[in-house]
Amino acid sequence: MELAAGLVFPLFLVFCRLGAALVVFPALSDDAIPPRARLLVALGASTLMYPLLAPSLPTLPPSTGEMVLLILAELVMGLLLGLGARLFMAALSLAGELIAFAAGLQAATLFDPGSNSSSGAPTIFLTLTGGMLVLALGLHHDLIRAVASSYVSFPVGQLPPVGDILTAVVQIFAEFSALGLQLAAPVVVAGLLTTALFGLLNRLIPQLQVFFVSVPLTVIIALLMLAAALPLMLQVWGTAVSGRLSILMVE
Known about the structure:
Order of helices and strands: HHHEEHHHH
Radius of gyration: 23 Å
Distance between the termini: 36 Å
């Protein structure tokens, strides 16, 4: 019982906060990664963090109700820490859907391994690329550091005020919506200009079968524009995610 009260339970609290953050974090939370691997990563990182956090961790409370409340609070705190980056992943999904609409690829749906559903081809490409970028930039390391730093501002069992959480969620929703429009802007503008050009050609040359000519050219122009703008798109997205890794301002 002394071992459970002084070691196992505090370590489990660290595992709850860090594990909940990893559950919603991009790339690490994909269904393609086996659950055992994710559990081992969370458990290993929690074990490494435990000696640094041990002085600030409580021991096993005397009542079951207090224990359950502490565990639930840590789970919610972890979800808040990892949800910011997950919401910014939705910016890539939004950009992909806009690009698919501008390029005429709405019907080109494929199986998305990240969401276990069918999505447009540009959406799947951007989300997979974003997941690799998260790992390449080491943002998962930043998440672990953010979880460790969160114990200073939010000790075990303490949650931010609900009003602050709702304000942060609304703000981050606005940020990733604007970011999605910004990322898709080059391809969308190119698609609109291409459509306007073929509309003008249809007026000037009525005999031209505009539909059969415009569809392949629109797709080709959109894909070329996507290839040209992709490095800048990923740079802008990576900077936004690293600057707002979590809903809470924890560094």
